[in-house]
Amino acid sequence: MKTEIVAVGTELLLGQIVDTNSSWMGEQLALAGIDSHYQTKVGDNWDRIEDAFRLALDRSDAVIVCGGLGPTQDDITREVLASVMGVELVLDERIAERIRSMFASRSRPMPENNLRQAMVPVGASPIPQQPGTAPGLVAPIRWVQGVGAIAPGAEPPAGAEVLDRVVYVVPGVPYEMREMMNGTVLGDLQRRAGVSATIESRVLRTWGQSESGLAEMLAGRIDELDEAGNPTLAFLASGIEGIKVRITAKGADSAEAWQLIDAEQAVLEPLLGDLVFAYDDDNMETAVLAELGRLGLTLGVAETITGGRMANRLSSAEAAMRAG
Amino acid sequence: MKTEIVAVGTELLLGQIVDTNSSWMGEQLALAGIDSHYQTKVGDNWDRIEDAFRLALDRSDAVIVCGGLGPTQDDITREVLASVMGVELVLDERIAERIRSMFASRSRPMPENNLRQAMVPVGASPIPQQPGTAPGLVAPIRWVQGVGAIAPGAEPPAGAEVLDRVVYVVPGVPYEMREMMNGTVLGDLQRRAGVSATIESRVLRTWGQSESGLAEMLAGRIDELDEAGNPTLAFLASGIEGIKVRITAKGADSAEAWQLIDAEQAVLEPLLGDLVFAYDDDNMETAVLAELGRLGLTLGVAETITGGRMANRLSSAEAAMRAG
Fold first, then answer.
1. Are both A211 and A157 inside the same structural domain?
2. Residues 274-313 of B with CB under 8 A from A
3. Is the dihedral of CA B165, B170, B175, B176 positive or negative?
4. Which residues on chain B are in Cβ contact (under 8 Å) with A316?
5. What CATH number corresponds to the domain at position B244?
6. CB-CB contact of B202 with B257 (8 Å)
7. Do B188 and B226 sit in the same domain of this protein?
8. How large is the ipTM?
9. What residues in A contact B48, CB-CB < 8 Å?
10. Per residue in B250-271, pLDDT tens?
């Protein structure tokens, strides 16, 4: 199930916004066991968006398109998709109603423009999650490489191989995109790919060794894991955050994956000794604060040179721990 | 002069690293007056890198390739480029010597692998700037769309249109990439594009109005500028950093561009009043510190809730002002 990502928006090409969405999606696809081979950024230009869609549909089974779903005239992802599919856009009354009521609940008049967001290509379905005004779309497409989409009811050229492709469209607003990816896209991709396995991972946070030093300490175990293939290890040098050792395991279900991870952790930790200071999203600050809490100690900080940086990191961590 | 960017590295696709390089390059290309229409990320896979190079050479005049220049076996940008060019790689003795002396100056033995970095495709030239061990490359290519490169000395197919393309290869390490972009790539692109104009810009940092509020305050002036076309204005909402108003001007030389910017600033500032608190890379902290300095005042900070954040921002700014 080859999947690729197309991010739409001139602001991405101009570097006014860094495309963190594609990075996040790439990570989620990897964790879900879905291959992703290309990520493309393209500006708000009809011809180039269309070229990017056609190329992606020629070479990948699934395409995730991110962005270009806003209410203004330069947001044309919907229109280009319908054109590539060879279908019309029709107003989806339920989406229109949802958008109207969003504006009403904020006591704001709805600009007519916003109804553009309720237009859906014939044959595509809205993604159920819709945290903002922009609806996401799932568009199954019958595709012939080098030819294009076979419109609903149309016959493919004689002898042509018809491929089942799917395009997902999600908004560029990060929390909207994430909700749709988690709620619909990733699961749908796994279902189509026949991925029944579940992939889980845990990060051991380490401090005090270089990446090559860690690789040396774990060399024997890495060789064994390379041969077995599951779980896998990855090192990620993260600057001031130390070096992360990620254990990733695949199982028939989540419980089996976690069992493999727990077993692997039990092998690695004796080898790593006290280099491991925390797990997953915990960091040096939360580790220090947890230890202080355990000992019933409080901490006063007087800083020079670092000018409040230590206090800032510690208090941010404390706030996160309280909120969590 | 259509230019596109190809970023190479599986870690980019997996989201382990956010591709800030492409964003930065996109911004620099825009400021240099060079069109850039696509940015593609591709993993460390020969076939897919080759496909990405061929596609880029088919549709763009210039291609900037970033990454895949390291010393290890999975860094294959050099090899794929030579293959696409239809030429051999040869050892560049001067680069080899430079790499050897870098290791010698750190009293470290040079792994033989590192000499891979001194291999250059026949017909390509090393980029003079080489802050790390990875040399950048400038590779002029004679290209026939849909066919490929015409190797040096070879004849193009009869009747084929031969296009002059150029590929720049720069390392993925940000400061190395930037030094090569600023030192060689951007200037070379402008020369090839016949861009004789110089583009300069200044940012007015504002606080206290929304983006649409600013647009309303400046509406009349924006209309005038839209008609004249030079200079141009752009708004950039930057969260806690306020909203940036960027004036960009094109001139026959730098002095002319700055003259236009100064004149435009003199028009805008009376309209914006005291919303403008700083310019370019200065921010709220440096503005406050400069004002305190002017008044001969010192500042003590006692923080709750923000837990050192204010002290941290102020002291970072102070350090930057001293260093600057």
1. no
2. 301, 303, 306-312
3. negative
4. 307, 309
5. 3.30.70.2860
6. no
7. no
8. 0.74
9. 37-38
10. 888 889 999 999 999 999 999 9
